[in-house]
From TrEMBL:
Domain Tetrahydrofolate dehydrogenase/cyclohydrolase NAD(P)-binding: 138-289
Gene it is expressed from: folD
Job description of the protein: Catalyzes the oxidation of 5,10-methylenetetrahydrofolate to 5,10-methenyltetrahydrofolate and then the hydrolysis of 5,10-methenyltetrahydrofolate to 10-formyltetrahydrofolate.
Keyword entries, A-Z: Amino-acid biosynthesis, Histidine biosynthesis, Hydrolase, Methionine biosynthesis, Multifunctional enzyme, NADP, One-carbon metabolism, Oxidoreductase, Purine biosynthesis
Self-association state and partner proteins as the record states: Homodimer.
Name of the protein this chain belongs to: Bifunctional protein FolD
Length: 292
């Protein structure tokens, strides 16, 4: 069994990005600048956005964090987005999800300039992804592809079962794994909350990508020997014995499933850090495209 070490690989990627930034500096060019908008005070969201800002500092990017109160109206948020669209200093930006209920997420995603949409959530970019055109691939799926690639995991002709059909992980992941090339060329089954007898499907899987958000959902009995297990779940479970008062828990019963798996991602330290590294990568690409 091999652990797909997202912490290590994301560090390698950050080092590669730092080297690119150093070259930009040496040429006297402007370094990439990522902005993030966060609306409200959700603890987990604030943590993730904080990690993104810290990661920018680490690789030598500039970053801007725009904090808006949870009472922000849709119009105010759209106005802010248009400002960032027009700000020539900003190469890419993200609007942290989820948004408060008074704001229509679809409208927000449509307002982001596709050339600055480093999350890859705009329908133009999502469509390009589905059609194999070059674009920003959403950071979490991009991170999973990168992990599979760097550990030389064979995906060709394999049965990949994706659990969860979210717009930011499950749905794009199902498309990417079925695309031509590598990592891809898989036969994909996309399962979700209406799927019947899911264990019957997961036990047929060579590769399982679980993006459900239900702690310890995937048990050893649901997995065949030598399967590749990608755990995208990140749920905070209260734990008084832990200094933070919670532990981060994945969708996979790691202790038991890891005994059967050929490759498996841990939580934390798997897909999460890769997401941040690939957001940086997309921002670097955005800068390079704007310069070109
Ligand atoms: N517009 C937008 N883009 C996103 O990419 C986006 C988003 N909204 N909303 C929320 C989700 C979630 N997400 C994570 C990023 C890093 C970790 C991460 O670094 N996790 C650490 C643990 C972090 C912790 O201690 O909480 C790990 O797995 O090792 C997790 C989750 C990005 N998301």
């Amino acid at each position: 069994m091999t652990i797909l070490d997202g912490k290590k690989v994301s560090n390698d990627i950050k080092n590669e990005i730092t080297a690119e930034v150093d070259k930009m500096k040496a040429r006297g060019e402007k370094v990439p600048h990522l902005a993030a908008i966060i609306v409200g005070n959700d603890g987990a969201s604030l943590t993730y956005v904080g990690s993104k800002v810290k990661a920018c500092e680490r690789v030598g990017f500039e970053s801007t964090l725009v904090k808006m109160p949870d009472t922000t109206s849709e119009l105010e948020l759209l106005k802010k987005i248009k400002e960032l669209n027009e700000d020539d200093n900003i190469d890419g930006f993200i609007v942290q999800l989820p948004l408060p209920p008074q704001i229509d997420t679809q409208k927000v995603l449509l307002t982001v300039d596709p050339s600055k949409d480093v999350d890859g959530f705009h329908p133009e970019n999502f469509g390009k992804m589905a059609l194999d055109m070059s674009t920003f691939i959403p950071a979490t799926p991009f991170g999973i592809l990168e992990l599979l690639q760097r550990y030389d995991v064979d995906t060709k002709g394999k049965h990949t079962v994706v659990i969860g059909r979210s717009h930011i992980v499950g749905r794009p992941m199902s498309i990417l794994m079925s695309r031509k090339g590598w990592p891809g060329n898989s036969t994909v089954t996309l399962t979700h909350s209406n799927t019947k007898n899911i264990a019957q499907i997961t036990t047929q899987a060579d590769i399982i990508i679980s993006a459900l958000g239900v702690p310890n959902f995937l048990k050893a009995e649901m997995v065949k020997d030598d399967a590749v297990i990608i755990d995208v779940g990140i749920t905070r479970v209260e734990d008084a014995n832990h200094p933070k008062g919670y532990v981060i828990t994945g969708d996979v019963d790691f202790e038991n499933v890891s005994k059967k798996a050929s490759f498996i991602t841990p939580v934390p330290g798997g897909v999460g850090p890769m997401t941040i590294a690939m957001l940086l990568k997309n921002t670097l690409l955005a800068r390079e495209q704007r310069r070109a």
